[in-house]
Amino acid sequence: MHEIGDYVYHTHCGVCQVKDIAKLTGDPSGNLYYVLTPLYGDDKNNIVRVPVSNAASLRRPLDKEGALKLIEEWPDTSTELYILDSKKRKAAYDAAFASGYIEDLALLLEGALQRKRKDIHLNSMDSQFVNRASPIVYGELSFALGIPYEEVVPFLEKAKAKK
């Protein structure tokens, strides 16, 4: 069980802080909910509630060692990662968000960014994916590495250049 003040990773909004564990006003069931505040992205400073009894969407965030391992295994940019078939790509995007595996999101994010670097344009589906996945992936790395969010991409670029 998570405690007030803990940091957790939520599959839909990335790293959050547990602000409270409380019942919902007007909910006669009396179920307890984690009251979370996302740290990054569009959901930053919003409130997310997750039932304590069904907290499968939560896990502990990466630690520094896990973040460095993820960066070490970061997808090679010389390999084509973009999924050309839009139906398969959409299914992969949805599956990655549902799984909560940061490695899956990182792979697909790198593929979409490859496409953007080549074409300078992303279709709306890819653009929405990048806008949603970036704060989740980069936010978790920022949190784990203890560096500002804005420094994550340059940190990744330096790490990729060393490979």
What's this entry about, in short?
Helices cover 45% and strands 17% of the residues.
Task: Please give the radius of gyration in angstroms.
Answer: 17 Å
Tally of helical runs: 5
- Got a strand count? 5
- Which CATH first-tier class of the largest domain would you pick? Mainly Alpha
Q: What is the topology, as strand order, of the major beta sheet?
A: 4-3-2-1-5
User: What is the SS-derived class?
Assistant: alpha+beta
Largest sheet: 5 strands, antiparallel
Uncertain segments of ≥5 residues (pLDDT<50)?
none
Tell me the helix content: 40-55%
CATH topology of the largest domain: Methane Monooxygenase Hydroxylase, Chain G, domain 1
> Could you give the distance between the termini?
39 Å
Shape designation: globular
Count of domains: 2
* Strand coverage percent: 15-25%
Query: What order do the SSEs take from the amino end to the carboxyl end, as H and E?
Result: EEEEEHHHHH
CATH superfamily of the largest domain: CarD-like, C-terminal domain
Could you report the average pLDDT, rounded to the nearest whole number? 90
CATH architecture of the largest domain: Up-down Bundle
Structure commentary:
The relative contact order is 0.15. The protein is 45% helix and 17% strand. The longest helix has 22 residues. With 163 residues, it is α+β, with helices and mostly antiparallel strands. Helix 1 crosses helix 4 and helix 3 crosses helix 4. The mean pLDDT is 90. It folds into 2 domains: 53 residues; 99 residues, Up-down Bundle (Methane Monooxygenase Hydroxylase, Chain G, domain 1), CATH 1.20.58.
